[in-house]
Amino acid sequence: MTDNPAHEEFDVIVVGGGPAGLSAALYCTRLGNQTALINRGGGRAAMMQDVHNVIGITEDTAGTELLSTGIEQLREYGCTVYKDVISSCSTETPVSTSAPELESESKSESAPTETRSESDSEDETNTTTDTDTAKPNTPDNTTTPPQISLSGTETTYTAEYVVLATGFTDVRPDPPLPRTGRGLHYCLHCDAYMFIDEPVYVMGTSESAAHVAAIMLNFTDTVDLLTRGDPPTWSDDTDTVLKTHPIDIIHEEISGVQNDADGWLTALEFEDGTTREYTGGFAMYGADYNNGLANELGCELNDDGTVAVDNHGQTSVENVYAVGDLTPGHNQIPIALADGAKAGISIHWQRRPFPRDLDLLDELGPVRAEEVPGLPDELLERAIEFHTYD
Ligand SMILES: Cc1cc2nc3c(=O)[nH]c(=O)nc-3n(C[C@H](O)[C@H](O)[C@H](O)COP(=O)(O)OP(=O)(O)OC[C@H]3O[C@@H](n4cnc5c(N)ncnc54)[C@H](O)[C@@H]3O)c2cc1C
Predict the structure, then answer these.
(1) Candidates 1, 14, 26, 48: which one to mutate for ligand 1, based on the most atoms within 8 Å of Cβ?
(2) What are the structural domains, with CATH classification, of the chain?
(3) CA nearest to 234, candidates 216, 214, 217
(4) Is 185 exposed, middle or buried (0-12, 13-18, 19+ CB in 10 A)?
(5) Of 334, 44, 49, whose CA–CA distance to 191 is shortest?
(6) Rounded to an integer, what distance in angstroms lies between the CA atom of residue 17 and that of residue 24?
(7) Which candidate, 48, 120, 309, 367, has a CA 20 to 30 Å from the CA of 195?
(8) What would the DSSP string read from start to end of 144-192?
(9) What spacing in Å lies between the alpha carbon of 32 and ligand 1's midpoint?
(10) For the segment 255-293, what is each residue's pLDDT rounded down to a tens digit?
(11) Alpha-carbon dihedral of residues 110, 114, 118, 124, nearest 10 degrees?
(12) What is the pLDDT of residue 71?
């Protein structure tokens, strides 16, 4: 990792080194912005024992391997990578908190169900057009670009643009529990496939827990809903659904876990002395969004704690983007990657110096040959070194 000096400045800083942040940093760097990625480590992607649903990545790849390959790639393109924790942030010059109109929506239920509200399925164009984002490449803001300041452990960082990719933390139920990824799972869209025709549990008392238990009947005929002695909070309608589907609701608290030699769950023991066989299951206790930095910068939050964003990841605060699990939508790697890509492309569109717009042409005159290409020297040299056809 890079040694941390006292202060560093970049065009773009991405906070969070999961798939969303890595993707945003990759696009920002390769599109010609001096970019830093600041990551404290851990996160949801690092919890993956094996990666599913990512075309081109085989299932024997662990989340940590995917992340470290991503970091290597970023460095090769000239992104600066810090291992650090951003504890606070602020805007240094007036940054509008009202500029962008958001088209965001809240998740319809707590995150780990990996479902999205119906409005999420609306067609979202991937192409940033000249009309859908206010272009800041004007005389005013080229002379005084807004600066966003971030405080790390020993270093402060400033940037013109910040991408927040800080994700969320799955709320973990109390032990005793199976091992994560070996019988305890948080992501239905990732892991339901591995439980087809196997006995599964869903743990929790919420609407989401009941919903996921019913959804699991699409994959297997043995589904138990474990409340662990806590009172259910699902609605009467949901209660009717549960009673009219072949789901056993078990209220006894868990007292022990049985695993095979590889550490995979085989059964759970209950306080009444019974034992029930399971290959795995899902814990549904909600999400704790890492939205403190977004909140501090004044970004609008949705009721569920996600950060409100438009189709490109732009938050309600100018030059601040949010991507990945921190924002509404399915919590999946391909979606986090796409979020990062969209934010990177949108930032490029806003920062690229050419074509010079008519106001700037009036002020600065025609673009001279020696002003192009519009890349910082270091990134230009890196890119030339990178040419694969030489
Ligand atoms: C057990 C498990 C298995 C999964 N399996 C799959 C799967 O097979 N396929 C799939 O598509 N999806 C899977 N998912 C979902 C997938 O992991 C997430 O959707 C994805 O990781 C979201 O990426 P992200 O970058 O938004 O967040 P994360 O991966 O959570 O990354 C957020 C990063 O931000 C960092 N961070 C947070 N706050 C700060 C701060 N203040 N300063 C610096 N850094 C900070 C964190 O340390 C972390 O590195 C799984 C999730 C879990 C929990």
Answers:
(1) 48
(2) 6-170+287-371 (3.50.50.60), 184-283 (3.50.50.60)
(3) 214
(4) buried
(5) 49
(6) 10
(7) 120
(8) S---EEEE-SS-EEEEEEEEE---EEEPPPPSS-PPBTTTEE--HHHHG
(9) 26
(10) 999 999 999 999 999 999 999 999 999 999 999 999 999
(11) 120
(12) 98
Strands (E), the chain: 7-15, 35-39, 80-83, 88-91, 148-151, 156-164, 168-170, 184-185, 200-203, 223-226, 247-250, 254-259, 265-270, 275-277, 280-283, 287-289, 320-322
Q: Which residue matches tokens 């206010």?
A: 134
The number of residues making up the chain comes to: 390
Point out the ligand 1 atom lying closest to the alpha carbon of residue 19: 25
Ligand 1 atom closest to the Cα of residue 181 is: 1
Which tokens belong to 61?
């790849």
For 349, phi and psi rounded to 5 degrees? -60, -40
Is residue 285 within 8 A of residue 59, CB to CB? The reply is no
Residue 286 φ then ψ, to 5°: 90, -175
Query: Could you tell me the two tokens for 150?
Result: 């971030």
Which residue, chain included where needed, has tokens 């608290």? 253
**Ligand 1 centroid distance, CA of 220 (Å):** 27
Residue type, 253: E
What is the C-alpha to C-alpha distance for residues 135 and 275, in angstroms, rounded to an integer? 62
Q: Determine if the peptide bond prior to 176 is cis (ω within 30°).
A: yes
What pLDDT does 145 receive? 74
Q: In this predicted structure, what is the pLDDT of residue 111?
A: 38
Ligand 1 surroundings by CB, under 6 angstroms: 15-21, 38-45, 47-48, 51-54, 85-86, 165-167, 170, 180-181, 186-187, 190, 290, 324-326, 331-333, 336
Tokens representing 337 are 């990657």
Q: Which residues of the chain have pLDDT under 50?
A: 1, 95-100, 103-142
Pairing outcome for strands 247-250 and 287-289? unpaired
Structure tokens, 268? 């759970």
Cβ–Cβ under 8 Å, residues 47 and 63: yes
Conformation bin of residue 237: beta by default, left when phi > 0, alpha when psi is -120 to 50? alpha
